[in-house]
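Service request form, structural biology core

Requester: graduate student, group of Dr. S.
Request type: structure prediction, single chain
Budget code: on file
Notes: please return the result as structure tokens.

Sequence provided:
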Amino acid sequence: MINEDQVEQLALEWFKELGYDYLLGYDIAPDSNDPQRANYQEVLLSHRLQTALTKLNPTLPTTAIDEALHLLKKPQHATLIQNNRAFHQMLLQGISVEIKNGDEAKGEVVKLIDFHDVHANDFLVVNQYTIKGTKGNRRPDIVVFINGLPISILELKNPADTNADIFKAYNQLQTYKDEIEDLFVYNEALVISDGINARVGSLTATDERYMYWRTIKDENDKPLLEYELDTLIKGFFDKEHILDYIQSFVLFEDDGKNIIKKIAGYHQFHAVREAVHSVIEASACGSKRGGVVWHTQGSGKSISMACFAGKLTKQPEMKNPTLLIVTDRNDLDGQLYATFSSAKMLLGQEPIQVDSVSDLREILKDKPSGGIIFTTIQKFGLQKDESRFPVLSDRDNIVVIADEAHRSQYGFDAMLDSETGQFKYGYAQHLRDAVPN
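Core staff response, request fulfilled:
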């Protein structure tokens, strides 16, 4: 049976296999021979961060980098989750700074991560990283850094200790959140493990919301007999995967009272990546058929759809697509629209909910590109004098997402109306006629 220290060493080896640099916390402590931060309260690796930002923003002056560093180190909000959301926005959009040139001031954006070139970023894993907290020193087991930012924490327990199960690791993280809050401002995901079992969760997740990560490269790459921690590290923290995850698989839901951070499960991550690939391929080869994603009840379909929308709109091949999200019930339309509205940071835009048939026709006709539009299939009804639905847009970068494609969305075959003698089509044909490409 392995002990906690051996679990830690194994985990570090798995990170090294992924190409992460490794440092022991004691070797880079403020009072060591190679100090990489000013004091034990500081949680960022300032020197690495400054080097990374200078490299990622070669055209910006030192003053811009310094201002970005200053803003990163000074959280602006009252609560941890508000500061975490603000930081996540900085990761996605960069930090706006003002550069003075004589009497003139110019706005610039300092990029924190290069999402397009994995190799442009600095990946590091550190164990025994001491931080001075409100009740003395605390030492999380493993901290994962990208460009000097502590984006993840792994808390490990001894698999041989019958009193120290995986949820003791969860409780330990809750204690750390109280005592070394600054470390969690920059957090994207938390991992708990006893070596054999391992789960990943968001900053606000309750213990039952921590999820397994069962795959490595894709849905077909599922080890059967292994340490769950091995699969989680190699699947979740793969460099390309973790950058994609940060950019497209993290959402914040705010109901006015509470902010909940939601992160995708492994099934959502891989389904969305496959779906995006499928849509790009269907668009390029002209088949126009993206595919079907099956979800069981309660497995996070709305989040999958929001992540899919956020990822697809960023694909250069799609040339700023318009997404048309079609449901067959008003309540479903409203629920989905609410999920998307709270995911504005991920989507990079405000979704539009169509109110009427004329509204739908106007919006689609006038849209040169972009936009996430919500409608029910019933709004593709014919007007009195129409025998076929008019073409609203012949653009080929309109993507239709049908949620729960029930009978209301059938109807490609013409049916003879015995009363009028006219052939009638169903809503599916009207939709196809409206956006033929």
